[in-house]
Amino acid sequence: MATPIVIGAGPAGMHLARRLARHEEVLVLDADPDSPQATEARPQLLAHLSFDPSHSARVSPDTPTNPGPLPPTAGLRLLSGRRAVRIDRNNHRVIDETGQAHDYSRLFLALGASPRWPTLLGSRLAGVQTLYTRRQLDTLLDALDHREPLLIVGGGLLAVELAALAAERVSVTLVARRRLLGRYLSPDIGASVVRHLEKRGARVLEQAPPHRLLGRHRVTGVALADGRTLMTRRIVLACGITPNTRLAREAGLATDAGILVNADMRSPSDPRIFAVGDCAQPPWPSMRGNITQVLHLADLALATVGGEPPPAPPEGLHRECRLGNDTRLVVAGTHPPSVSTSSATPTKGETLTARRGGRVLRATLHQQRLVAFEALLPSPQARRLTERWSDRGALCQTDMVGLRWLAWLPPRRPSDPLICRCAGVRHSAIRAAIAEHGGETAMIRRATRAGDYCGNCLDEIASLAGRRPWRSRLMRWSMAVATLLLAGVLGALPVWSVPDSVLPAHAFTAYRLMTDAIVRELSGYLLLLAILLTLVIRGGPRRYWWHGLLGGGALLLMPLHALGGLSSGAGLNAGLVALVLLVVLSGALAMLHRRRLLLRLGHRVATLLLLAATLLHLVFIYQY
Asked: Could you tell me if 88 and 100 are in contact, meaning their C-beta atoms sit under 8 angstroms apart?
């Protein structure tokens, strides 16, 4: 029986298949035995990669890169590791590599793209690899050795992001054939990116095309066109991608840079065949590799099949690159060739340029609306900038002043904020899915496709559904308890200040315990140990319970160590009490809002101050 067939289990292919499976049986063929998880991770391949100080490369625990597979979809049959080798258009069949023929009623090509191999002598030597799949990333991480340098060939976003992240662990050299990020950035912003990479320890060689790779069986280095030789045993080729068109071309479908399609995503050569994702070439400029664009093309094909009006094109498309754990490079739109920057407040068609404290911004505005921008900003600022871009609303005067003089945007909660940036799902869509399907996160994901890709928004989706993560509940309770303790301590200060001479011999047993020198000294050492452990143990979802436990222990030790000293009016005791409460409150806030760099920095500073104050207090107790 003929059924719809989807070739490719990437983001576009699986999105198509899941939606089609609601109404009929669907078959998915994919050459990757690990699909769909391996292929659906491609757009965010390096999204959360980090290197810890012990030189072990792992995925950052702060956010899940694999949110877990969706529940099985009824009507969807996935054949992983089964490559389609031929399309028989006359008989409406797809033949896979085992020779089995599958009849199709409609055929959807979601073939994706492959990394481009440059025409370099020696590019197939051992030690040379591309970076496109999760398996290739794992191979690279296993092979990295801090004693051997890594050389990256390429000048695009993937090459720059990999260089910035790998420089934390190994010696990195980035070789660009032309100017770094010349396709996306103006020369001055590109120079800022180069300086940022060099500050992180990477060596950047621009206008240095490689001539050939050295070595017999394994690569030993690269010879540049200018005669220089760079020695290395590990090379990553990050030279862009090429749409997979061979299967379509051999079937007689029209192809160019991709598989040609009409505005409804049908092939002009065969109305039964559609192409979506990175392999498709629609009749308008597209942004390959952008997950929002990829899913929009799939939605166009679904609308055509269902006889529905085409969905509106996605707004706020931009490119993003992570340059370290807390810095983002974001690019969107096209700047005019010549602009004026003479006035303090941008006017029609003017470009604003600002540099402050490591933040670099170049934005073009028209009637106080963002037309284009390129910026190197801390992660919270980059997110605010892309949110303003997605909203397409006029910037307020505070935004204008912040951009112009500080390269900074104040926080602002839009009326309908974007929850899932990968799939372009907003707050209203999540609320509508909750009203229709209840609070089950899996059903919300299936209905909206939010959280299917990088997983950054899963905690926020769970919060909207009334299922707050356990660490969120724990931190909220911690803040409430710390606030009550602070209020209680402030209210009890007059009582603690009563001199010993007016107290009955049988009263205030706890007070007399807290004024005992041995108890105070022992509790001080335990408090010091708890503070040191919080500084040593790295924060992350899997370690939050340690930080919560240590913070609770510090709150319990605080009365034994410091409150008794308030009776003598010692300012150091009062300061120690305030510092403990400040550390607990700032730690709870930092865990609730993990992306706020200032909160994390403030918590670290408060903890260091508490460490110093505790040491001083112990010395004071020991001496006096």
From this structure: no
